[in-house]
Design brief:
- The chain is built from 15 helices and 16 strands.
- The protein has two domains: 128 residues, Aspartate Aminotransferase, domain 1, CATH 3.90.1150; 280 residues, Type I PLP-dependent aspartate aminotransferase-like (Major domain) (Aspartate Aminotransferase, domain 2).
- Helix content is 42%, strand content 17%.
- Helix 2 crosses helix 11 and helix 13 packs parallel to helix 15.
- Bound molecules: 4'-deoxy-4'-aminopyridoxal-5'-phosphate.
- The site of 4'-deoxy-4'-aminopyridoxal-5'-phosphate has 13 residues, from helix 5.
């Protein structure tokens, strides 16, 4: 990813389908002050006018699990139909910290491992490496996961003496594949987690950017036995620069063994929640998430009655329009049956589309595309972690204007046409 950032900086006039960043057209510095004021007013109202307490909450070191956990819980109820105990929530420095804390807590012995659908979000594989937790790859499918392969991988791992602790999934508009899981797949996945005794780590940064009606419930909303650890991010729906994420970890953990025990198992003699464990690790990592940053996001939640779907109506429209423009633009530039043969998936939301091209797309080709054609994209091999170039590239359309999308697709079509006719033409370096 450092390489991708370097390429982007070297060619600032290139159109970038590479960065999966939120749209900047609605960024407003004034929001920061308004949201902060809104949160301070809320603190005053809930502190009975105790100004010292208001100042301390915002300006002093704070509660490790965060100060907006109650608002996050309300947001989850409003937007996702998830009923979460605020005490089971840890507010983190982005979802990325939540990922690391969770994997670190699950890593008890050398036998432990995490399952993940590949191609897999690099933030998960990076965090797993830091936590020294091997990632066991599970095949993808049009339904977001190949459940038969999942069972095979789990059984093989157990036969090898390993303990697959959890399976990491992005059920809504996965990064990079854009795939979403139908409801039946979600329900079956929950059953398999129960049958084979592993947790599900549900990462959901893009779930709100659905077409209004067609939205399956989150795994956590379907979860009846605390199998799901839910990882949230306000980077796409709040303000990315605030770096606020969170984790709902309501599993009961036996303090001695440190294994999450499902609710039905009864509480062991000495137990705490997984959230408490994560807080202990967090206290050694970032101490607590900046209260000022939490206050800004807290203010945004308050300003919108904790309904971020409504608050993001404009953003959702931009992302949906951009998605449609990319899909239509690809169909225009690569008509069915024409040469070169290029295909793509058709997600119904999110930030990403995967394009299948007639040549292996590696970092050298990206550099060539940037230099000669002034268009950037992400080679999908980065999400496999094995360095083997694939015939696939990820197109992210979230931060582009319609004109940039059109221009970028023209350039991309020229690049793909050239590579298909004469591989690596112009690659003089
Ligand atoms: N999970 C996925 C699937 C993502 O795509 C991203 C952001 N690119 C994150 C987590 C990271 O979220 P945050 O910015 O809150 O750390």
């Amino acid at each position: 990813m450092t390489f991708l950032n370097d390429v982007a900086q070297e060619y600032p006039d290139a159109v970038s389908f590479a960065a999966g960043r939120p749209y900047e057209g609605f960024f407003d510095l004034g929001d920061v002050h308004r949201y902060l004021d809104r949160f301070v007013a809320h603190l005053r109202a809930t502190s009975g006018g105790d100004e010292a307490r208001v100042r301390r909450t915002l300006l002093q070191y704070g509660r490790t699990k965060g100060i907006i956990h109650d608002l996050v819980a309300r947001n989850l109820a409003v937007d996702e139909g998830i009923e979460a105990d605020p005490e089971s929530i840890v507010v983190t420095v982005g979802c990325q910290e939540a990922l690391f804390l969770t994997l670190r807590a699950l890593r008890r012995t050398e036998r432990d491992a995490v399952l993940a659908v590949v191609p897999c979000y690099v933030g998960l594989s990076g965090a797993a490496e830091l936590a020294e937790l091997p990632v066991l790859p599970v095949e993808n499918s049009a339904a977001g996961i190949d459940l038969d392969d999942l069972v095979r991988v789990v059984e093989r791992a157990k036969a090898d003496g390993r303990r697959p602790r959890a399976c990491y999934v992005v059920p809504d508009f996965a990064n990079p594949s854009g795939a979403s899981m139908p409801r039946a797949t979600r329900e079956r996945l929950l059953e398999l987690a129960e049958e084979h005794d592993f947790l599900l780590l549900e990462d959901n940064p893009y779930g709100l950017f659905h077409q209004a009606a067609a939205r399956p419930p989150t795994l956590k909303a379907l979860d009846r036995s605390r199998r799901v650890v839910y990882l949230g991010s306000y980077a796409k729906t709040g303000i990315p620069g605030a770096r606020i994420g969170f984790v709902v970890a309501d599993q009961t953990v036996d303090v001695g063994a440190g294994d999450p025990v499902p609710a039905e198992g009864g509480r062991p003699a000495r137990s705490e929640t997984l959230a408490d464990q994560l807080a202990k690790i967090k206290s050694m990592l970032t101490v607590n998430t900046a209260p000022l940053a939490q206050a800004v996001i807290g203010g945004k939640l308050l300003a919108h009655d904790c309904d971020l779907r409504a608050a993001n109506a404009r953003e959702t429209r931009v992302y949906q329009d951009n998605l449609r423009r990319v899909l239509d633009g690809l169909a225009e530039r690569f008509p069915a049956g024409s040469s070169p043969s290029v295909s793509w998936n058709a997600p119904t939301g999110g930030f990403f589309v995967i394009l299948t091209v007639p040549f292996p797309a590696d970092d050298a080709l990206l550099a060539l595309s940037a230099r000669k054609h002034k268009v950037l994209w992400t080679p999908v091999h980065h999400f496999y972690g094995d360095g083997v170039a694939r015939h696939q590239i990820r197109l992210s359309f979230s931060q582009l204007t319609p004109d940039e999308i059109d221009r970028g697709l023209d350039r991309l079509a020229a690049f793909i046409g050239e590579q298909s006719a004469s591989p690596r033409q112009g690659d003089a370096r």
